[in-house]
Specification:
The complex is a heterodimer of chains A (320) and B (305). Chain A has 320 residues and is an all-alpha fold. Helices cover 70% and strands 0% of the residues of chain A. Chain A has 11 helices and no strands. Chain A has helices at residues 13-18, 26-48, 79-115, 117-131, 135-158, 167-186, 189-202, 206-213, 218-254, 266-275, 284-312. Chain B is mainly alpha-helical and 305 residues long. In chain B, α7 (170-199) packs across α9 (214-226). Chain B starts with a helix and ends in a 7-residue tail after the last helix. Chain B has helices at residues 2-29, 43-52, 59-71, 86-121, 126-140, 143-157, 170-199, 202-209, 214-226, 228-251, 257-266, 270-298. Classes of the chains: A mainly alpha (320), B mainly alpha (305). Chains A and B meet through α5, α9, α10 and α11 of A and α1, α5, α6, α7 and α10 of B.
Chain lengths: 320, 305
Amino acid sequence: MPATATSPTKRNAAARLLAHPVWRQPVFLGSLLILLAIVLLAIFGPMISPYSYSQISENQFAPPSWAHWAGTDELGRDVFTRMLLGARISLLVGLTGAVVSLTIGVTLGMLAGYLGGWVDSLLMRLVDLLYSLPRLIFVIVIMAGVNAGLDSWAESISDSLAWLMEPDEVVSYARILLLFVCLGAVEWMTMARIVRGQVLVLREQPFIQASRALGQSNRRILVRHLLPNLAGVIIVYLTLTIPVIILEESFLSYLGLGVQPPLASWGSLVHDGARYLNPIKIYWWLLVYPAAMMSITLLALNFLGDSLRDAFDPKQRPRN
Amino acid sequence: MLAFIVRRLLIALPILLAVLVLTFLLTRLMPGNPFSSERDIPKPILAAIEAKYNLDGTLPEQCASYIGGVLQGDLGLSTQYRNRTVNEILAQTVPVSMTLGVIAFLVALTGGVILGSLAAVNHNQPADRLAMLAALFGISIPNFVVGPLLVLAFALLIPIFPPSGWGTPAQIILPAICLAIPFIASIARLTRTSMLETLGADYVRTARAKGLAERTVIFKHALKVAILPVVSYCGPLAAAILTGGIVVEQIFAIPGMGPFFVNSVLNKDVFMIGGIVLVYSSLLIFFNLLVDVTYFLLDRRVKLA
């Protein structure tokens, strides 16, 4: 475990990280490459595509062809272009939501583990309580509650953003932003628990005792000494939180409560595809392509997270 | 233990009330009101309707009258399905959702534990690798993808199951499997890890040494301890099955709570939202209590706090 050794010196950290055996695992490398490809597609795809995601044409329900790689939908929109936009939005939601959840989880987990006592028991009770309540239900209610207020707010600022996007788009993006925050805000519990467990072990280590004996402030110990030693675990669980948040976002979009048309996320695309599932005429490309792209991304993220966890999380190391 | 159960139930009451009040206030604070979604209604008529639904007066007054009603078992009138009480709708839909949820829960539990134990017993052999690969697929692919694909495969291309609906046993199979798949996967992973740990324990070696059949060692001795993490996962599992059920009910056109909940949120049907959130939360709180008691019965070293 050279990369997460608890020695405070960080010399050649980058070099050691690159020499880590995890790089020689085909699963890890493979999923990393796939993710990289999908991220590049998400960033540059919509710019290169000859179609726009909202461009309606008369060519409805066209099966996949050279002109439309993944066919067209009920309004004649190019499905592949919409999948690329969906990738953009879903990945962005996943990443931002995971960062929000990480910020909350790491802060509360560190405080609980380091301070102990009533702070610890209060926070952990809260975690238990939230685990046992239907959190996504609350997200749905909150989203619906704030959505309407959001519209008027977005209209008021859309003038100042007119050079950048249409007023409708301001509302849509504001809604997505809200989605990030809500999802992150309900998914921090796992991170808090893991971080707390690690801190409980770390705070008894000699180097923390030494810093305390030297009279360093709690804040300094937390930020300068504990946080760097938590980095491995944090990165692992960040990777594992992203697919969870992407799943939840697509779950909400599938129900029609998340991303609104003409924007698209993978969840809303799968929903559109599933709506046209009937025994008479099967428009399979509406369902299969978005579902495949989403599943491949989630699989790659989970594979990546698992191999990172096996490599860096001291608690979960596989036994041989 | 009785004291523990009573105490937990007493704590649950204020939690449920707080959840209910928050939900009510949040829904009422949404701009617009449940009655004016399509066209504007003349003021006096609106006032009359609001009075009928006890939605007139200040917000605290409305909330107090709502909570007062709930405490007497009256969840109010649905504003969206006119002239139907929330109690009535819930009485029809909750049993449906519960049936689906319980079946999916049992499928997930048995499937996951069996798969996980088999993987652990064949540690690092092809069977283990295959099971864990399948589990990762199960976790990664959302059930609203699995659902339509199952329909496409087993109802449209090979018509052995009905694609949707509710009432006959055959109609339960596809939705229950669809709902259970991700949880079979996570339970299998959980069981495997804890089983591997247990199989290395001394008492398992003792059991083997005294010549017990391998099957007895694994399923009678090791599994009893290895299943503990799975038991504590049951609480979050129930929560996930409840929310997952919303989508699965939508996909298979099952008349459960899910579609009602989505519609009530979209239409600001305040009493309906409150009622369903109350049902979800109390189910989960009750279930978590059950899980804690089960855990205690399985492992007496645990203290009930």
